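STRUCTURE:
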């Protein structure tokens, strides 16, 4: 059973930065595509960023392009999300997810495993 544990969330002022981490265990991490999603209260879970199994292809939601960067370290079984220039409307619970086919997906239903989430609060 694959387990994903997010960390790095917290409270930050608008314009600030945070780096989220997601540590995986119990599976073949290096063969999985990984994604980050977020869900604000009363809203649907939305795609933020994804990376394929090789780390050679990434995808981003339009509003985060140029500010967020997804990366992976297969030696540590960890995927990261560097978030810069954060905005108050990006306050949400951020989730990481694993897609066992290895290809970047932007739809939550395509992901097979999910973490419990980490809260990111951006104050204005």
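SEQUENCE:
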């Amino acid at each position: 059973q694959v387990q994903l544990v997010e960390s790095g969330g917290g409270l930050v002022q608008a314009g600030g930065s945070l780096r989220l981490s997601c540590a995986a265990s119990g599976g073949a991490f290096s063969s999985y595509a990984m994604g980050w999603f977020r869900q604000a209260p009363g809203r649907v879970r939305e795609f933020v960023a994804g990376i394929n199994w090789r780390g050679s292809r990434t995808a981003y939601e339009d509003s985060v392009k140029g500010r967020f960067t997804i990366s992976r370290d297969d030696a540590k079984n960890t995927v990261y999300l560097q978030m810069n220039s954060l905005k108050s409307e990006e306050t949400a619970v951020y989730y990481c997810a694993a897609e066992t086919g290895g290809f970047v997906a932007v739809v939550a239903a395509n992901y097979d495993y999910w973490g419990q989430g980490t809260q990111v609060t951006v104050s204005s």
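REMARK: The chain has a mean pLDDT of 97.
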